[in-house]
Amino acid sequence: MTALPEQLLSLPPAEVEELACRAHLGVWTARRRKLPMAPFHWEWCELAMTQRRLAIVAPRDHSKALALDTPVMVPGGWKALEDIGVGDLVVGADGSATPVTGLSDTFTDHDCYRLVLDDGQSFVADAGHRWRTYYAWRGYQDVATEEIAVDVAVKKRRGQTHCLDLVRVQSDDVYLPVDPWCLGYWLGDGNTHQAVVSTADPEVPEWFRAAGYAAVNGGKQIQWSLRDLRYSLRKIGVLGSKHVPESYLWAGTQQRLDLLRGLMDSDGTCNNGQCVFTSKLEVLRDGVARLVSSLGWKPKKYQARALFAGRDYGPVYGVCFYPDEPVFRLERKVARQRHLPEGRRSKAVSRSVVSCEQTLTVPVRCLTTQAGSFLIGDEVPTLNSETFSVNATTWRSQYQIGIWTYIFMNTGDQAKEMITRIESAMRETCPQLVDPPRRRTSNDILFQNGSRVTAAGAGKAVRGAHPDFIVGDDVLEEQSAATELERKRVERWWKGTVANMAHPGSVRAVRMDPHSEPVRVTMPPTRVVLVGTPFHEQDLLLGMRSNPLYAYRRYAAEFRPEDLVAGTWAVEVS
Question: Where are the domains of the chain?
Answer without folding.
Answer: 33-60+387-563, 66-165+348-383, 180-329
